[in-house]
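Researcher: Please translate sequence to C-alpha cells.
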Amino acid sequence: SSLIAQQRALQVNGNNIANVNTPGYSRQRAVLEAVPTYAGGGVRVSGVEQTVDRFVETRLLGQSSTSAGASARRDLMQSVQDLFPVGDASVSGAVQDFFAAANALSAHPEDLASRNDLLDRAEALAGKLRGAAQGLASVQREADDRVAAGIADANTLLSRIADLNKGIKLEEGTTGTTANELRDQRRTALGDLAKLIGIRTDENADGSVDVSTTSGVTLVSGTDAKQLAARLGATVGLDGSVLHDVGVVAPDNTLIPIGSAPGGEIGARLGVRDADVPAQAASLDTIATTLRDAVNGVQTDPAGRDLDGLVGTAFFAGTGAADLTVALTDPRGIAAAQSANPNDNANALALANLQTATFPGLSGQSIAGALGTLQAGIGADVRDAKDTATVQQGLLQNVQAQRDAVSGVSLEEEFTDLIRFQRAFQASAQLITVGDNMLETLIGMVR
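Model: Translation complete:
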C-alpha cells in the first residue's frame, strides 16, 4: 500500500511540475491517510485536492472586472483626447486664427485679400469643429461596436461555463473524485467573463456554479446558460445611426436590463458611449452655435454694410459643430463697415471684439475660454482614467500574487516533495526487501 500511495503522490507531484507554466492551473496534492485496521493497514491516497482559496478567487474575479473596465475606459478616453490636440493644429488655434484675420480686416476693410483670408480662416475653423464632432461620433460608434462584440464573446463563455458545470457534475457524481482539471478550466472561463462584465458566483452542492451579474440578473444556472443580446434600439447616436440596447434575453424574447453599471469592459464602454462622449459633444455644439450666432449677429446687423453697401447675410450656417459651414462665399459680402465708406471698419472691429466677448451660454466665458475649458476637462478625464487604470492594474497584480502564493506551482516546493516521496518509496521498497529476506531465513530454518 505504501508503494502504491507514494507512487500516486509522485504522479500528482509530476503533474504539478508539468503544468508549472499552464495558465489557470491550480496546484494539486495527494491526500494520504492511514488505513484504519487494528494491526496497521498501511497508507492510501484518499483523494487529490486542489490548493484553492475561494475568497482570493472571488477577489480576483472582482478585481479582474474592475481593472479591465478601467483599461477599456482609458483607451477610449485617449481617443477622445486625440481629437483635441494642443497648439496651432487645435480648434482653439483655428479660433485664434479666425479672430486674428478679423482684426487684420479691421485694419484694411477695403482689401479683398484680407477678406479672402478671413473666409479661409472661417472655413478652417468650421472644418476643425466638424472634424472634432465627427471624431466624437466615431468614438461613440467604436464603443458601441465593441459592446456588441463583447456581448458575443460573453455568450460563448457563458455556454462554456454551463458545459463545464455539466462535466464537473457528471464526473464528480459518478466517480466521487474532484474534477480538478475541469474546475481549472471553469475558473479560467469565469476570469475571462469577469473581464467583460462584472459577475457574482455561487457554488452548488453538486459542484456546479451559478453566475449572475452584479445587479443580480442570472446568467448561468447549473447547466443552463442564459443569452445576452445587443439589439439596435431607439437611441440615436451622434452619427445619426441607432445604438445597441444590451440585456439578458428573457423567455418572451424581451431584454432584461443588466444594470446601469454592469462593470468590466462592457460597462466601461457603455459609460463612455452614453455619458462621456455625448456630454463632450453637447459642449462642442454649444461652442459652435455660440460662435455661429455671435458672428452672424455682427454680419447681419442692420447697420452693417458690405463693399457694395448692402446689409450682410449670414456668415455661418448649421445646427451644431457636426454640420457647421461657412455660408458666405463672396468676400465682398463681408459686412466690415457701418456706412457706405469702404474704409469704414466699425463692423470689422465688432467682429474682432468677439474674441474677448463673454457669453451666458458658455457660463460667462469667451469662445476660446470655453474651448479651453472643454479641452482641459477632457485632459483631466484622461489623466484620471490613466491613473485609475494604473492603480487597478497594480491591485490586480497584488491579488494575482496572492492567488499564485496559494494555488500556483512552486518548483522549489515540488522538488522538495519529489525527494520526500522518492525517499518514502525507496524506504517502502527496502521494507519489502527486508521482509522477504526474513521470510527466506525463516523458511530455511524450518527446512
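Researcher: Any highlights?
Model: The CA atoms of residues 360 and 420 lie 81 Å apart.
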